[in-house]
Amino acid sequence: MPYHDGAALSSVYSAAREGGYGFFASNVTQFDILVGVLQGADRVGADAVVQVSRDSAAFYGGGDPAVGLSAFGAYLDQLAEFTDVGVFCNVDHVHLPDQRDFLDTVVETGVASSVMVDASDRPFEENVERVSEAVEQVREGERSEPSDGASGDSGPASREGGQEMLVEAELGRVAGTESGVETAETDAFYTDPEQAVEFVERTGVDLLAISVGTQHGVASGRDLDVRPSVAREVDAALREAGHDIPLVVHGASGLSDDQIDAFLDAGVPKFNKNTRYQYEYARTAADFYHEHADAIRPPDGVADDRGSMFAGSDWSPDKTYFHPQVVAGEIRERLADVMADLSELTGCAGRSLYADR
Protein backbone atom coordinates (compact mmCIF):
# COMPACT_ATOMS: atom_id res chain seq x y z
CA MET A 1 0.00 0.00 0.00
CA PRO A 2 1.20 3.60 -0.41
CA TYR A 3 3.23 5.03 2.40
CA HIS A 4 1.44 7.48 4.63
CA ASP A 5 1.44 11.09 5.79
CA GLY A 6 1.86 12.70 9.18
CA ALA A 7 -1.79 12.48 10.18
CA ALA A 8 -1.68 8.71 9.81
CA LEU A 9 1.67 8.55 11.61
CA SER A 10 0.21 10.54 14.50
CA SER A 11 -2.52 7.90 14.83
CA VAL A 12 0.12 5.15 14.85
CA TYR A 13 2.05 6.83 17.67
CA SER A 14 -1.16 7.47 19.64
CA ALA A 15 -2.13 3.81 19.38
CA ALA A 16 1.35 2.81 20.52
CA ARG A 17 1.23 5.08 23.57
CA GLU A 18 -2.21 3.77 24.49
CA GLY A 19 -1.14 0.16 23.95
CA GLY A 20 2.24 0.43 25.67
CA TYR A 21 4.35 -0.52 22.67
CA GLY A 22 6.71 1.35 20.37
CA PHE A 23 8.76 1.43 17.19
CA PHE A 24 12.37 1.51 16.20
CA ALA A 25 12.57 4.29 13.60
CA SER A 26 15.19 2.90 11.26
CA ASN A 27 17.81 5.09 9.63
CA VAL A 28 18.49 3.98 6.07
CA THR A 29 22.02 4.70 4.88
CA GLN A 30 21.89 2.23 1.97
CA PHE A 31 18.98 0.94 -0.10
CA ASP A 32 19.51 -2.73 0.84
CA ILE A 33 18.92 -1.71 4.47
CA LEU A 34 15.60 -0.18 3.40
CA VAL A 35 14.50 -3.35 1.62
CA GLY A 36 15.49 -5.55 4.55
CA VAL A 37 13.78 -3.34 7.13
CA LEU A 38 10.52 -3.26 5.17
CA GLN A 39 10.60 -7.02 4.57
CA GLY A 40 11.13 -7.66 8.28
CA ALA A 41 8.34 -5.32 9.35
CA ASP A 42 5.95 -6.82 6.81
CA ARG A 43 6.82 -10.35 7.93
CA VAL A 44 5.70 -9.71 11.51
CA GLY A 45 2.87 -7.26 10.79
CA ALA A 46 4.51 -4.15 12.22
CA ASP A 47 4.07 -0.64 10.85
CA ALA A 48 7.46 0.77 9.83
CA VAL A 49 9.08 4.17 10.26
CA VAL A 50 12.17 4.62 8.10
CA GLN A 51 14.47 7.62 8.34
CA VAL A 52 16.79 9.43 5.97
CA SER A 53 19.26 12.17 6.89
CA ARG A 54 20.66 14.95 4.74
CA ASP A 55 23.97 13.07 4.47
CA SER A 56 22.22 9.93 3.24
CA ALA A 57 20.09 11.94 0.84
CA ALA A 58 23.26 13.49 -0.58
CA PHE A 59 24.73 9.99 -0.96
CA TYR A 60 21.66 8.79 -2.84
CA GLY A 61 21.74 11.88 -5.05
CA GLY A 62 25.41 11.66 -6.01
CA GLY A 63 26.19 14.63 -3.77
CA ASP A 64 22.89 16.50 -4.25
CA PRO A 65 20.58 16.00 -1.23
CA ALA A 66 17.54 17.37 -3.08
CA VAL A 67 17.93 14.81 -5.86
CA GLY A 68 18.62 12.07 -3.33
CA LEU A 69 15.60 12.87 -1.18
CA SER A 70 13.29 12.74 -4.20
CA ALA A 71 14.88 9.48 -5.33
CA PHE A 72 14.49 8.01 -1.84
CA GLY A 73 10.83 9.03 -1.73
CA ALA A 74 10.11 7.53 -5.14
CA TYR A 75 11.88 4.28 -4.24
CA LEU A 76 10.07 4.05 -0.90
CA ASP A 77 6.75 4.72 -2.59
CA GLN A 78 7.26 1.78 -4.95
CA LEU A 79 8.49 -0.60 -2.25
CA ALA A 80 5.66 0.30 0.12
CA GLU A 81 3.18 -0.97 -2.47
CA PHE A 82 4.48 -4.50 -1.84
CA THR A 83 3.83 -4.39 1.92
CA ASP A 84 0.64 -4.96 3.88
CA VAL A 85 1.68 -2.66 6.73
CA GLY A 86 1.83 1.09 7.19
CA VAL A 87 5.08 2.66 6.00
CA PHE A 88 6.23 6.14 7.05
CA CYS A 89 9.22 8.35 6.25
CA ASN A 90 10.97 10.63 8.73
CA VAL A 91 13.70 13.04 7.63
CA ASP A 92 16.16 12.96 10.51
CA HIS A 93 18.31 15.64 12.14
CA VAL A 94 17.94 18.70 9.93
CA HIS A 95 20.38 20.95 11.81
CA LEU A 96 19.34 24.57 12.17
CA PRO A 97 20.23 27.11 11.05
CA ASP A 98 23.02 25.55 8.93
CA GLN A 99 20.76 23.17 7.00
CA ARG A 100 17.82 25.51 6.49
CA ASP A 101 18.14 25.04 2.73
CA PHE A 102 17.62 21.31 3.16
CA LEU A 103 14.50 21.96 5.23
CA ASP A 104 13.27 24.00 2.26
CA THR A 105 13.79 20.90 0.12
CA VAL A 106 11.98 18.66 2.61
CA VAL A 107 8.96 20.95 2.62
CA GLU A 108 8.94 21.47 -1.14
CA THR A 109 9.15 17.80 -2.07
CA GLY A 110 6.59 16.63 0.48
CA VAL A 111 8.42 13.31 0.72
CA ALA A 112 8.40 13.14 4.53
CA SER A 113 5.65 11.96 6.84
CA SER A 114 7.62 13.80 9.53
CA VAL A 115 10.79 15.85 9.84
CA MET A 116 13.14 16.17 12.80
CA VAL A 117 14.59 19.67 13.09
CA ASP A 118 17.51 20.06 15.45
CA ALA A 119 18.78 23.19 17.17
CA SER A 120 19.53 21.41 20.43
CA ASP A 121 23.18 22.52 20.34
CA ARG A 122 21.97 26.13 20.70
CA PRO A 123 20.92 27.92 23.90
CA PHE A 124 17.32 27.29 24.94
CA GLU A 125 15.90 30.56 23.61
CA GLU A 126 17.59 30.12 20.23
CA ASN A 127 16.44 26.49 20.10
CA VAL A 128 12.87 27.69 20.65
CA GLU A 129 13.24 30.41 18.01
CA ARG A 130 14.77 28.16 15.34
CA VAL A 131 12.29 25.33 15.90
CA SER A 132 9.29 27.69 15.96
CA GLU A 133 10.36 29.09 12.60
CA ALA A 134 10.73 25.57 11.22
CA VAL A 135 7.30 24.52 12.47
CA GLU A 136 5.73 27.55 10.82
CA GLN A 137 7.58 26.81 7.59
CA VAL A 138 6.25 23.25 7.55
CA ARG A 139 2.72 24.41 8.29
CA GLU A 140 2.94 27.02 5.52
CA GLY A 141 4.13 24.29 3.16
CA GLU A 142 1.08 22.20 3.99
CA ARG A 143 -1.17 25.09 3.05
CA SER A 144 0.45 25.49 -0.36
CA GLU A 145 0.62 23.22 -3.38
CA PRO A 146 3.35 20.55 -3.47
CA SER A 147 6.26 21.08 -5.84
CA ASP A 148 5.83 18.97 -8.99
CA GLY A 149 9.36 19.40 -10.27
CA ALA A 150 11.24 17.93 -7.34
CA SER A 151 9.07 14.96 -6.51
CA GLY A 152 8.03 13.48 -9.83
CA ASP A 153 4.90 11.49 -10.62
CA SER A 154 5.70 8.68 -8.17
CA GLY A 155 6.52 10.94 -5.21
CA PRO A 156 4.31 12.38 -2.47
CA ALA A 157 1.24 12.69 -4.70
CA SER A 158 0.71 8.92 -4.26
CA ARG A 159 1.30 9.01 -0.53
CA GLU A 160 -1.94 8.09 1.19
CA GLY A 161 -3.53 10.84 3.27
CA GLY A 162 -2.19 14.03 1.70
CA GLN A 163 0.59 16.42 2.66
CA GLU A 164 0.49 16.74 6.43
CA MET A 165 3.97 16.50 7.98
CA LEU A 166 4.75 16.09 11.67
CA VAL A 167 7.63 18.03 13.24
CA GLU A 168 9.99 16.52 15.81
CA ALA A 169 12.57 18.53 17.72
CA GLU A 170 15.12 17.84 20.45
CA LEU A 171 15.49 19.35 23.90
CA GLY A 172 18.60 18.43 25.85
CA ARG A 173 21.91 17.24 24.41
CA VAL A 174 22.59 13.65 23.35
CA ALA A 175 26.29 12.78 23.32
CA GLY A 176 28.02 11.41 20.24
CA THR A 177 28.11 12.32 16.56
CA GLU A 178 25.02 12.60 14.37
CA SER A 179 24.98 13.95 10.80
CA GLY A 180 28.44 15.44 11.27
CA VAL A 181 27.56 17.32 14.49
CA GLU A 182 29.46 16.11 17.56
CA THR A 183 28.41 16.55 21.18
CA ALA A 184 31.02 15.69 23.81
CA GLU A 185 29.89 13.63 26.80
CA THR A 186 30.75 16.57 29.06
CA ASP A 187 28.37 18.80 27.07
CA ALA A 188 25.41 16.40 27.15
CA PHE A 189 22.65 16.96 29.68
CA TYR A 190 19.25 15.52 30.60
CA THR A 191 15.98 17.11 29.56
CA ASP A 192 14.25 19.14 32.25
CA PRO A 193 10.48 18.36 32.51
CA GLU A 194 9.36 21.95 33.17
CA GLN A 195 11.50 23.22 30.31
CA ALA A 196 10.02 20.50 28.07
CA VAL A 197 6.52 21.84 28.72
CA GLU A 198 7.61 25.37 27.87
CA PHE A 199 9.41 24.19 24.74
CA VAL A 200 6.37 22.30 23.44
CA GLU A 201 3.99 25.17 24.16
CA ARG A 202 6.18 27.78 22.50
CA THR A 203 7.20 25.78 19.42
CA GLY A 204 4.13 23.69 18.63
CA VAL A 205 6.16 20.54 17.85
CA ASP A 206 4.39 17.21 17.38
CA LEU A 207 7.10 14.97 18.86
CA LEU A 208 9.84 15.68 21.37
CA ALA A 209 13.23 13.96 21.43
CA ILE A 210 14.66 14.04 24.93
CA SER A 211 18.10 13.48 26.42
CA VAL A 212 18.06 10.49 28.77
CA GLY A 213 21.73 9.46 28.85
CA THR A 214 21.94 7.57 25.56
CA GLN A 215 24.62 8.28 22.96
CA HIS A 216 24.68 8.49 19.19
CA GLY A 217 26.97 5.96 17.52
CA VAL A 218 28.84 3.03 19.04
CA ALA A 219 28.39 3.03 22.81
CA SER A 220 30.01 -0.25 23.84
CA GLY A 221 32.51 0.04 26.68
CA ARG A 222 31.05 3.34 27.87
CA ASP A 223 29.39 3.66 31.25
CA LEU A 224 26.23 5.39 30.08
CA ASP A 225 23.95 6.73 32.81
CA VAL A 226 20.68 5.96 31.05
CA ARG A 227 17.66 7.23 32.97
CA PRO A 228 14.18 6.06 31.92
CA SER A 229 12.95 8.07 34.91
CA VAL A 230 13.67 11.25 32.93
CA ALA A 231 11.27 10.13 30.20
CA ARG A 232 8.63 9.28 32.79
CA GLU A 233 8.94 12.69 34.45
CA VAL A 234 8.86 14.58 31.14
CA ASP A 235 5.84 12.59 29.96
CA ALA A 236 4.01 13.23 33.24
CA ALA A 237 4.74 16.96 33.11
CA LEU A 238 3.49 17.22 29.53
CA ARG A 239 0.32 15.27 30.25
CA GLU A 240 -0.39 17.37 33.33
CA ALA A 241 -0.08 20.49 31.15
CA GLY A 242 -2.54 18.98 28.65
CA HIS A 243 -0.07 17.94 25.96
CA ASP A 244 -0.23 14.43 24.51
CA ILE A 245 3.20 14.55 22.87
CA PRO A 246 5.02 11.34 21.86
CA LEU A 247 8.56 11.24 23.22
CA VAL A 248 11.56 10.02 21.23
CA VAL A 249 14.80 8.42 22.41
CA HIS A 250 17.79 8.88 20.11
CA GLY A 251 20.92 6.73 20.25
CA ALA A 252 18.94 3.56 20.93
CA SER A 253 21.47 1.16 19.37
CA GLY A 254 23.30 0.91 22.70
CA LEU A 255 20.25 0.19 24.87
CA SER A 256 19.63 -3.17 26.52
CA ASP A 257 16.29 -4.99 26.22
CA ASP A 258 15.49 -4.11 29.84
CA GLN A 259 16.15 -0.43 29.18
CA ILE A 260 13.87 -0.52 26.14
CA ASP A 261 11.13 -2.05 28.31
CA ALA A 262 11.63 0.68 30.90
CA PHE A 263 11.25 3.41 28.29
CA LEU A 264 8.14 1.75 26.87
CA ASP A 265 6.69 1.74 30.39
CA ALA A 266 7.54 5.44 30.60
CA GLY A 267 5.43 6.13 27.50
CA VAL A 268 8.11 6.43 24.81
CA PRO A 269 6.80 5.11 21.44
CA LYS A 270 9.74 6.01 19.14
CA PHE A 271 13.36 4.90 19.35
CA ASN A 272 15.90 5.94 16.73
CA LYS A 273 18.25 3.21 15.54
CA ASN A 274 21.03 3.67 13.00
CA THR A 275 24.40 2.26 14.09
CA ARG A 276 23.10 -1.29 14.56
CA TYR A 277 21.91 -1.46 10.96
CA GLN A 278 25.22 -0.13 9.64
CA TYR A 279 27.10 -2.75 11.64
CA GLU A 280 24.83 -5.58 10.50
CA TYR A 281 25.32 -4.47 6.89
CA ALA A 282 29.10 -4.41 7.19
CA ARG A 283 29.33 -7.56 9.31
CA THR A 284 27.17 -9.59 6.94
CA ALA A 285 29.21 -8.47 3.93
CA ALA A 286 32.50 -9.05 5.76
CA ASP A 287 31.52 -12.56 6.86
CA PHE A 288 30.28 -13.44 3.38
CA TYR A 289 33.39 -12.22 1.55
CA HIS A 290 35.70 -13.74 4.13
CA GLU A 291 34.01 -17.11 3.69
CA HIS A 292 34.20 -16.91 -0.11
CA ALA A 293 37.49 -15.02 -0.49
CA ASP A 294 39.06 -17.88 -2.51
CA ALA A 295 36.34 -17.51 -5.13
CA ILE A 296 36.98 -13.77 -5.52
CA ARG A 297 40.69 -13.08 -4.93
CA PRO A 298 43.38 -14.86 -6.99
CA PRO A 299 45.61 -17.34 -5.15
CA ASP A 300 49.34 -16.82 -4.68
CA GLY A 301 51.22 -17.11 -7.95
CA VAL A 302 48.35 -15.85 -10.12
CA ALA A 303 48.75 -12.35 -11.54
CA ASP A 304 46.09 -9.95 -10.27
CA ASP A 305 44.96 -9.09 -13.80
CA ARG A 306 41.56 -7.56 -13.20
CA GLY A 307 41.51 -5.76 -16.55
CA SER A 308 41.33 -8.99 -18.55
CA MET A 309 39.33 -10.81 -15.85
CA PHE A 310 42.26 -13.26 -15.54
CA ALA A 311 41.99 -14.39 -19.17
CA GLY A 312 45.55 -15.68 -19.24
CA SER A 313 45.24 -17.75 -16.07
CA ASP A 314 43.96 -21.22 -15.20
CA TRP A 315 42.11 -19.58 -12.28
CA SER A 316 39.04 -17.37 -12.63
CA PRO A 317 36.73 -15.74 -10.08
CA ASP A 318 33.33 -17.30 -9.43
CA LYS A 319 30.44 -15.00 -10.27
CA THR A 320 28.27 -17.05 -7.93
CA TYR A 321 29.93 -15.11 -5.13
CA PHE A 322 31.13 -11.79 -6.58
CA HIS A 323 27.85 -10.67 -8.16
CA PRO A 324 26.71 -7.69 -6.01
CA GLN A 325 23.17 -9.00 -5.74
CA VAL A 326 24.37 -12.15 -4.01
CA VAL A 327 25.83 -10.39 -0.98
CA ALA A 328 22.99 -7.85 -1.14
CA GLY A 329 20.52 -10.69 -0.75
CA GLU A 330 22.37 -11.90 2.32
CA ILE A 331 22.32 -8.37 3.76
CA ARG A 332 18.62 -7.91 3.11
CA GLU A 333 17.77 -11.22 4.76
CA ARG A 334 19.87 -10.39 7.80
CA LEU A 335 18.33 -6.92 8.16
CA ALA A 336 14.84 -8.40 7.81
CA ASP A 337 15.62 -10.78 10.69
CA VAL A 338 16.95 -7.90 12.79
CA MET A 339 13.89 -5.75 12.12
CA ALA A 340 11.53 -8.61 12.91
CA ASP A 341 13.30 -9.22 16.23
CA LEU A 342 13.28 -5.51 17.11
CA SER A 343 9.56 -5.29 16.35
CA GLU A 344 8.95 -8.17 18.74
CA LEU A 345 11.08 -6.41 21.36
CA THR A 346 9.10 -3.17 21.26
CA GLY A 347 5.76 -4.97 20.99
CA CYS A 348 4.68 -3.50 17.63
CA ALA A 349 4.75 -6.90 15.89
CA GLY A 350 1.20 -7.87 14.97
CA ARG A 351 -0.05 -4.37 15.84
CA SER A 352 -0.16 -2.78 12.38
CA LEU A 353 -3.09 -0.43 11.96
CA TYR A 354 -3.17 -1.31 8.26
CA ALA A 355 -2.39 -5.03 7.84
CA ASP A 356 -6.00 -6.19 7.99
CA ARG A 357 -7.45 -3.42 5.84
Notable traits:
single chain, 357 residues, alpha/beta, eight-stranded parallel β-barrel, 10 strands, 13% strand
Sheet with most strands: strand arrangement? 1-2-3-4-5-8-9-10
Largest sheet: 8 strands, parallel, barrel
pLDDT < 50 stretches: 147-158, 175-187, 216-222
> What's the mean pLDDT score?
89
Give a count of the beta strands, DSSP E runs of length 2 or more: 10
Order of helices and strands: HEHEHHEHEHHEEEHEHEHEHHH
Q: Work out the strand percent.
A: 5-15%
SS field, number of helical segments: 13
Query: Fraction of residues in helices?
Result: 40-55%
Radius of gyration: 21 Å
Intertermini distance: 10 Å
Shape estimate: elongated
From the helix content, strand content and strand pairing, which structural class follows? alpha/beta
General description of the model:
The protein is built from 13 helices and 10 strands. Helix 2 crosses helix 13, helix 4 packs parallel to helix 5 (100-109) and helix 11 (275-291) packs across helix 13 (324-346). The longest helix is centred in the last third of the chain and has 23 residues, at 324-346. The strands form 2 sheets. It has an 8-stranded parallel β-barrel with strand order 1-2-3-4-5-8-9-10, surrounded by 9 helices. A two-stranded antiparallel sheet has the order 6-7. It has helices at 6-19, 31-44, 54-60, 65-80, 100-109, 124-143, 148-151, 193-203, 228-240, 257-265, 275-291, 319-322, 324-346, and strands spanning 23-27, 48-53, 87-95, 114-118, 166-171, 176-178, 181-183, 207-210, 247-249, 270-273. The chain is α/β, with parallel strands linked by helices and 357 residues long. The radius of gyration is 21 Å and the shape is elongated.
